[in-house]
Amino acid sequence: MPSFSDLGLSEPLLEALRDVGYESPSPIQVQGIPPLLEGRDVIGQAQTGSGKTAAFGLPMLEYVDPSEREVQALVLTPTRELCIQVTQAVRTYGARKGVDVVAVFGGAPIRTQQAQLRAGGHIVVGTVGRVLDLISRHSLMLHSTRFVVLDEADEMLDLGFLEDVEKILSLTPGSRQTALFSATMPAEIRRLAETYLMDPVTVKVKAPRLTVDTVEQFKLQTSGREKDAALERVVDAERPTQAIVFVRTKIRCEQLFKRLRDRGVDAKALHGDMSQGARDGVMIGFKSGRVPILVATDVAARGLDIAGVTHIINFDVPTSPDVYVHRIGRTGRVGRSGRAITFYEPRQERDIAAIERHADITMGEWEPGAHVDPAPVQERPRRHEKPHVARNGDEPHVKLIVNAGRAAGLEPADVVNAVTAGAGLDGEAVRNVRLLERFSFLEVPESEADLVIERVRDREVRGTRLRLERARA
Known about the structure:
With about 475 residues, the chain is of the alpha/beta class. The chain has 18 helices and 20 strands.
């Protein structure tokens, strides 16, 4: 496996990568960075969590000239959550180069974003709607944009944004370099690539084999009338620490959430008709572990990367085998156990068979206490025990205290990002983040606690310099 220096990156970016503890590139980075550095257009097919943000972000930063006060690169994202995530990553990578990254998205004051653009902004990361709005107000000029990235293009298609994406692309220079990243490649995305990319290099990275190695997969046949009762039976038997229940429609999402709530189950809904503020609230609650069950549609849950998810329940059969793999990839993360249970009606047996062929697995029949044995990475929990969520079966964690909390404007994601960026830990190593008014708590692996305390010291988040120490027992 080559190193980052073998890929042709400059020293400031290599130093930034060393700052965050990245040692070796992922497959999408190995294949994608060299052609992008050569100025080629690239189509990247890879799942969330494959490292694609660095794959396009690092070459993009090589092109940016900090002395020019113009927008030189644009990254379009389908959702506010992904926009924030990409912005934080690119800022970290470009810190030593002095590159200014501005995030623009709906649900936040547009005047603040206009002021940030007036003050500078070499790279703009934005949601499609807000970018168009700022262009129409003459606050965002793209005439000097040399590099354009379409991130999660298939989700833009799902959300109906493709026409707006084409409008934005038509306002950028024809000489630009373009990168398109997508987990799947439906016909509309292929047409978009053929229209707007010039002789692109295609990079395709297979999803990791998390489906077999770390996730126990089951199927449960039921009739349409009995599905609600079947879900209640599964939840009672499995007792998930955190579960995502996937449904096909927004209406069904609301109905199922209300039924669970009426039974006294602590659940929340997540779908596209909710306001951005409501979605943010649900996401914060779920990421922090306060919400054990999330009922969600596929579009609303795209990009979800939650460390503590122990169960995926497909209340509705996924629309394709790719969607199935994408859904269950949210549990059974590296070194962890997870369980996936798919409900199906007799008429859907052919759909289940297609999924099994695609994922090269055979689902077991679910019943209380059922287990399968696909060469697990770790010993799985026995029935009625809450699975131990850690990077291995018995890694001890310690609690740390942070010198800031809600009063400083911190959110759980800020704490997690400070640790992952500052100490080089993966997000799954940080757990049980809890924000109080003046300080916060989190847990990290005991073997890495001193490293976290040292590396995160004086890291500035929302204007506050963070200091961490071990919490007293």
